[in-house]
Specification:
By secondary structure, the chain is an all-alpha fold. The chain contains twelve helices and two strands; from the N terminus they run H-H-H-H-H-H-H-H-H-H-H-H-E-E. The protein has helices spanning about 15-25, 30-35, 40-45, 55-75, 95-105, 110-115, 120-125, 135-170, 175-185, 195, 220-225, 230-235, and strands at about 245, 250. The longest helix has about 35 residues, at about 135-170.
Length: about 260
């Protein structure tokens, strides 16, 4: 027969514990030392995770201390009486906080130093765990910054993409060959798992033949805004579909330079 061991509960002064937690002018370490319990127990009790029987008393005592402090100091005087963490609300610049978090280029430590809050508070707000009222503003600003970045990146990359396409199609030598290979590798579909496993057919809408099927439509025009003739030459080089223009199908064989090694 197994004997059940009952967990012993250490006796401590509930009244003193309630008073110290409600006053809010002592650290958890100081409260634990005075009452004779661990800091973990103080943290659990003050946050309501333990000793549910004490929570009503703590709440009543907290409100009583706050009212008494405000009455004593007066409404127009600065209240220096410590307020419990659960009732504190630090005043800081919400607009600046939203801007810094959305920027994504400033560390949480620097944001905390500028705004005047803790690093952990900045992290929790950035993760959406605190200040739910700020999350829509942060999300909207992040999306706006992303669109601006994409436009800037497109403006910077456009000349490089156009130059690469011209070198690939109109140049010769090793540089042109590498440029052609890069374009082909960039605008190909990845290997079809079904084809590699010997199963058919492949994904709907893809042209048959080969382990790597070319894209039916290329995003190159929107990325680099190539001329119709050069864009059609790119499609031809990649074995893509012929491009339809206002005059019909444009496949300028005479404008295409021979490929090295062909």
């Amino acid at each position: 027969m197994t004997k059940k061991t009952r967990r012993k509960r250490k006796d401590y002064d509930d009244d003193l514990l309630v008073e110290l937690i409600a006053r809010g002018d002592s650290t958890k370490k100081q409260i634990a030392k005075r009452v004779g319990i661990s800091q973990t127990q103080v943290s659990d009790i003050s946050s309501g995770r333990r000793r549910g029987d004490l929570q009503p008393r703590i709440n009543v005592a907290t409100r009583s201390y706050v009212r008494e402090a405000r009455r004593r100091q007066g409404r127009r005087q600065v209240d220096h009486t410590p307020v419990p963490m659960s009732l504190r609300k630090k005043e800081y610049d919400d607009d600046r906080l939203v801007e810094l978090i959305a920027a994504g280029s400033v560390s949480h430590a620097k944001i905390a130093a500028e705004i005047g809050i803790t690093d952990s508070m900045v992290s929790r707000i950035a993760r959406g765990e605190r200040r739910a009222d700020l999350q829509p503003r942060i999300g909207a600003l992040v999306r706006s910054r992303r669109v601006e970045f994409e436009h800037l990146a497109a403006a910077i990359l456009k000349p490089a993409l156009v130059k690469q396409a011209r070198v690939a199609l109109e140049g010769d030598g090793e540089t042109a060959r590498k440029a052609r290979q890069h374009i082909i590798d960039t605008f190909r579909y990845p290997p079809d798992p079904a084809k590699l496993a010997g199963r058919t057919p492949g994904p709907a809408g893809l042209p048959p033949g080969g382990d790597l099927a070319r894209r039916p439509k290329l995003p190159l025009r929107s990325m680099a805004e190539l001329s119709p003739a050069l864009f059609a030459a790119v499609l031809k080089e990649l074995d893509g579909p012929e491009m339809e223009t206002e005059d019909g199908i444009d496949t300028p064989e005479d404008k295409k330079t021979p490929v090295d090694g062909d």
